[in-house]
Amino acid sequence: MIxxxxxxxxxTTEDVQTKALxxxxxxxxxxxxxAIMGPSGCGKSTLLNxxxxxDSSTSGKYYFEGKEIDxxxxxxxxxFRKGNIxxxxxxxxxxxxxxxxxxxxxxxxxxxxxKADRKKKVMEVLxxxxxxxxxxxxxxxxxxxxxxxVAIARAVVTDCNLILADEPTGNLDSTNGVEVMELLSExxxxxxxxxxVTHSQRDAKYAHRVIHLLDGKIVSEDRNNISIK
Amino acid sequence: xxxxxxxxxxxxxRKSLSxxxxxxxxxxxxxxxxxxxxxxFELSYDSFHDGDRIYRVESRLYEGxxxxxxxxxxxxxxGPVMSREIPGIEKFVRLTAQDREQxxxxxxxxxxxxxxxxxxxxxxxxxNFPIKRGEKTGQLVRPNTVVLTESAAHRYFGEAxxxxxILTFRTATAEQHFEVTGIIDRMPANSHLHYDFLLxxxxxxxxxxxxxxxxxxxxxxxxxxxxxxxxxxxAFAAISDKYKTAALKHKDWRVELxxxxxxxxxxxxxxxxxxxxxxxxxxILSVMAVALLLIGWVNALNLMVARFLxxxxxxxxxxxxxxxxxxxxxxxxxxAGIVNSLAALIALGWLxxxxxxxxxxxxxxxxxxxxxxxxFWVTVSGIIVLGTLFTGLYPSYLLTRIRPSDIMRGxxxxxxxGNRMRKALIVxxxxxxxxxxxxxxxxxxxVRYMQNETASAxxxxxVVLKYPSFTDxxxxxxxxxxxxxxxxxxxxxxxxxxxxxxxxxxxxxxxxPYGSDQSEVKLIQMFAVDYDYLSTYSPDMVCxxxxxxxxxxxxxxVVLNEEAVRLLGFPSNEAxxxxxxxxEVVEEPLQVIGVARNYHQQSLAVPYKPxxxxxxxxxxxxxxxxxxxxxxxxxxxxxxxxxEQAYRDFFPTSLFSYFYLDDFNRNQYQEDRNFGWMFAGSAxxxxxVACLGLWTVTLFSTLSRVKEIGIRxxxxxxxxxxxxxxxxxxxLLTVVASVIGIPASAFLMNNWLEGYAFHIVLPWWSYAxxxxxxxxxxxxxxxxxxxxxxxxxxxxxxxxx
Lengths: 229, 801
Prior knowledge:
The complex is a heterodimer of chains A (229) and B (801). Chain A is of the alpha/beta class and 229 residues long. Chain A has helices spanning 44-51, 74-81, 100-110, 115-128, 144-156, 174-189, 201-204, and strands at 2-12, 17-28, 33-37, 59-64, 67-68, 85-88, 162-166, 193-197, 209-214, 217-223. In chain A, α3 crosses α4, α4 (115-128) crosses α5 and α5 runs parallel beside α6. In chain B, 38% of the residues are buried. Chain B: Residues 18-238, 437-640 form the MacB-like periplasmic core domain.
């Protein structure tokens, strides 16, 4: 599904050049659950953002289902993201002024779905995430765990193939953290490809494969004993 | 030093923000200062006299309870009688109020002068116009002496000694000689009196010095300490019956005493030549100045808060590492102080540029030496200090109050509480802009309407000469002059008259239908004309005929306009024909031979007024200062040169001066055009200030919505969609402002238009245009900011979160 060849990312400030990614080549198959680990500043989030097309690499190639992504323009990338990739962030990134329902509905609005269809779909997903009773609330009125479930609902509402999660449990206590990981795991079992960036060994255990990054380079890969559906 | 370098660094970091902040504030400060200078000037009128007990005595004539005549003058008899019979008047002085031009000659120097009056020696006791040269006392006692200003003296005598020289004053009917006995400084701009020549009152023939018949002098009195002016006015009412002339018998004849310092700001009355100020305008302007400062400060405050919040992390870190509240407060105040001082400095620059422009528009120098006055600098310093406290205290207070961790997380930026306040401010500014923009359109439309209404094709063909000054056999010479001109092929008509279109006829005399009761008298303007006037200016005749020499005896005939017919109570225009009138100064009855359609004798601000045309020889003492020459085609330079030559041949001692009626007509709307400029200027300022406010609010709202925009982008929102999301509110604000602005503007502008007897209906398109204009300006203002945010990669937005 995803293939990168010698991806590099250079951050240049006035007098310092930092290589956030150094010729990273990797492949992620459809239906896989991959965790990226490494110390702070090793380039995990950068890698995830490039995979999510939120950022583009300085050099190297990135193929998504055979299509070369780095050739695309900003607006092409925007429409490519829609419906293909869902995002989950450490700080949830919900819009405070919109209700839970409206937050989850937003990606469907941008896909120009019909209003009735949207409503049905959103309620269905909220139900799956066990948060439907909170549909009319605002994010600030929910607990961290609940907020992250809303964020996951928003990520999956378009039936996307790939979910990218940047430390999804980073802001949660352990109980809520486990709950979120179970949810992601469940989504993966239903066929969604998932890539997470994490510091937590416990979270990494949910993945089929763990990629270790250090100073922008892949240094090792572990496989957990979980079969890919 | 450390603080200062931090301020400089922080200003540099957001250059455009700093520039906008300082520039915007400077514009508000300079506008406020300009207004304050004007207000100070208006309030300073006649403050240079020791005038606490000095009043001007003004006449008020009532019929029953109705004030029928409101004059700034009194009769020549008021002063001496009041001073003699009413206790409490310490001193009085009279200044004659005639406005006839005189031609003044000294050897080969000759100028037309209007700024003269006859006055009494007490002038120098009541008013503070010190004698610079000549005897300090005893001025204006002798007949035929004159005190003049230094500039007037220079005009006639150059560097030569003026004292003892003789000036010749000529009107159409008389010639007088005056010896220069004293020199004074030019009367200051903030004086309601502006004379170049003070002629001795004793020159006026003895028998006419104290007559009651004419309300022709300004009378000033100085009361004894503790005397109430109302008592004097009441005392006059009690004795007034004794002195009433026949014309006043049925009127209630009173006086009112206006304090010297208030004369300038009381409403304009009849027989007042000076353009008066308006107390309401002074109040409105003062409020505007304060409002401008407040708006400028609030905008600056908002920008400052935005900057501080943007730099919240820096302050968070400073606090975390132990910066004390005092240090943070000091830094905030220092930054605000520098911003305010720079803004004030630039404001002074604006003022330097603007003052000459404003002075030339206002035609007087209200900023004279103003920038050198200590009180001006106190005001400027006050504005800087207040501004520094206003814009510096709150943001620094905000930062000292909250926890460092909150600042570091950028929590404040996402608070949208303050935004409601800011939006309300934007709406207010937009409403003001809307009203001023529509107002500008309305003023322009009204001025155009007035110009087009009064202009006629004939006006472009008419040149008007001033009547020559006194000389032997003047009327005979005038007749030959007219004949001479009429022989020229390009001249169609020549006519002599008491007024021309655009000039008030004045010369009010009482008239009543012949045989009716004395109580039926009406004051009507008497328009002295020759036989050719009506055909030259051709007002339509409704019925009857105009004057013609063919009929022989026309001296006892008059032509009325429709308004005069109505006022005199004739049932119809036709019914007036053949009827006779009794006019106060003519013994025989005057017969009505025609009725002219109402036309605009004065500007369209003034309603149609009753006018009676009569042949000028009937009442020879009513002056006829204008000679109108109507040509075929326009008056080019060659024709004018010919006319001038003829004038000089016939009237070698007179001054040739002329004007084109067309220009004259345009000039009478100069005040209105100035008002239009003022409106346009204020509209520009309001729009600028509103844009500044809008810019700040957009800065806030986009900053506080950056995260939201980032998320929306991640979720696939397109640029157009984001633009709509970010500017939807702006559209709403503009609509709200317009909805409030339309009725407010309609109300205000209708009120303004009501001041014109003839006016346009409010043009609906001005609202549509103002709305679209505001919208474009608003979007233009925010477009760049919004676009910048929209173009940011979502990645950067969310990472900076």
